[in-house]
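Re-run with default settings, no changes from the original entry. Doing this only to confirm the output is reproducible before filing.
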Amino acid sequence: MITAFVTFRYGEDFSAAKVRRLAENSRARFEGIPGLRSKLFSVYPELREARNVYVWDDPEASRRFFTAENRDCIAALYGVQPIIEYAEVCALVENSAA
């Protein structure tokens, strides 16, 4: 398993409300993506940042998802370039019955 942390750093043009709307409107697009276990959308108003966290069962699926073309689409959607970092998942706790 691998985790991808996708961070968006804004300047003065930051809007937490816009980030929240983006998350709500984008949520359904990620349901059923092969290899994607979960995705979390978050916003840090005090830092003027948004961060999305992806947990992938298949590391290669993650790398196929974040192509240069898809990164450009993500940047256009959020209005800033994404910073993508990967980390190995050492252990995972899931308490949801869903």
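The chain has three helices and four strands. The domain at 2-88 is CATH 3.30.70.100 (Alpha-Beta Plaits).
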